[in-house]
Amino acid sequence: MNKIFRSLSAPNYRFWAMGALVSNVGTWMQRTAQDWLVYTELSANNATALGVVLALQFGPQFLLLPLTGYAADHLPLRRLVFVTQAIMGLLALILGVLVVTGAVQLWHVYVLAFLLGCTTAFDMPARQTFVSELVSEQHLTNAVALNSTSFQTARLIGPAVAGLLIALVGTGWVFLINGLSFAALMVAMLLMHTEQLRHRDLATTPPGGMVQGFRYVFANRQILAAMLMFMLIGTFALNFPLYLSAMGVREFGIDASRFGLMNSFIAVGSVLGGLMAANRERPNLHHLLAGATLLGFALGLAALMPEFISFSLVLVLVGVSAQTFMTGTSTAVQIWTIPEMRGRVISIVFALSVGGTPLGALTVGWVADNFGPRWALGVGALSAFVAAAIGFAFVRGARGRGH
User: Fold this and answer.
1) Which of 141, 82, 328 is nearest to 225 (CA)?
2) What pLDDT is attached to residue 183?
3) Which of 309, 57, 259 lies closest to 158 in space, CA to CA?
4) Is the model's pLDDT at 402 over the cut of 60?
5) Cα 123 to chain center, whole Å?
6) How far is CA 99 from CA 7, 103, 226, in A?
7) Quick one: pLDDT at residue 210?
8) What pLDDT is attached to residue 164?
9) Share in percent of the chain as helix, strand, coil (round to 5)
10) Is the dihedral of CA 103, 105, 110, 111 positive or negative?
11) Can you tell me whether residue 297 is helix, strand or coil?
C-alpha cells in the first residue's frame, strides 16, 4: 500500500492532491449537470446538441495547440495553472447564475463551453507537466497515476451528488458549487513550499518551436504509436457523456438521480484502473495495447446489455480499461520525453486526441440520433479495436528491429 501512495511523501504533492480532489469533485458535478441540462432541459433529448457542446468544449485543444504547448514550456507552471483555475471557476459561476435565474439558453451553454475549452487547452498540459515539479523523477510514474486516480475518485462522488442536487434544487446550484470548488486547488498552490519545487529550465525557443515538438514525436516511434492510439480512442471511444445520456434516457428511461449513479459506476472502474497503474513501475506499449483491446471489448459488451443494472455493471469494466489506457499514455509520454520538451509533446498528444472530439462527438451523436445509442457504443468499440491494431503493429515492428 505504501508503494501505491509513495508520491504523497512529498509535502507539495500532498497539498496538490488534497486541493485537486475537491476541485475534481466539483468538475464532475458540473459535467453531469451540463449533460443533463443540455440533453433533457434545453434540447428535448437531442444527442447532436450534446455533441455540439462537447465539440466546442474540446475542439480548442487542437485549435490552440501552437500556443498551449508554447505556454507550458515557457511560462512558470504554478502561476499558469493558478490563472486557468480562476478563469474556469468564473465560467462555472456565470453558467450557474444563468440557470438559477432561468435566463439560460442553449447558445449560452455553447459559448461558455467554448470559453471553457479554450481555458482547459492551456490548463491541461500545464497541470500534467506541473506534476514533474512536485515529485522526484523516480516518483513521476506514481504521481501521474495518483493524479488520474484522484480525478476518477472524484468521479465516484461528483456525479452521484450532482444527480441528487439536480433532483432536489435544480442544475444551477451544481454549477455554482463547482465554481467555488476551484478555490481549493488555488489555495493548495498558494500553500506550497516554493523552494521545494523542482523548477525546470524554461525553454527559450520562439512559438514556432512547436515544430520541434512534432519532429520529436515523429522521431520517437513509441510516442508516435501512443499518439495515434490516443487520437483514435479520444476521438470516438471516450464520448461517455453521449453514451450515458442516450442509453440512460432513451433506452432505460432513468431520472436525474440514477443518471448520476450511472456515472459513478464507470468511476468505480476508473479508480481501480488508476490504482493498478499507480502500482506499476513503468508503462510500455504492451500496457496501452491491453487497455485499448479491453476497452473495445467493454464498449461492445455494454452495447448489448438489456437493462439498466447490467449496463451499469459493465461500465465498471469500461472504466478500468479506459483508465488503464489513458493513465498509461499520459505517464509513458512524460517518461519517454526529455524534460525541456514535455510541455510541447504532451500538448500535441492530448490535443490530437481530445481535439478530435468535434469530429467524434458529432459523429457519435448523429449515430445515436439516427440509429440508436447502442450503435453509437459500437462506433466507440470499433475505434478501440483499430487503436489496438495500431499498437500491435508498432510492437511487432519493434520486435522485427530487435528492440
Assistant:
1) 328
2) 95
3) 259
4) no
5) 12
6) 40, 6, 40
7) 67
8) 87
9) 85, 0, 15
10) negative
11) helix
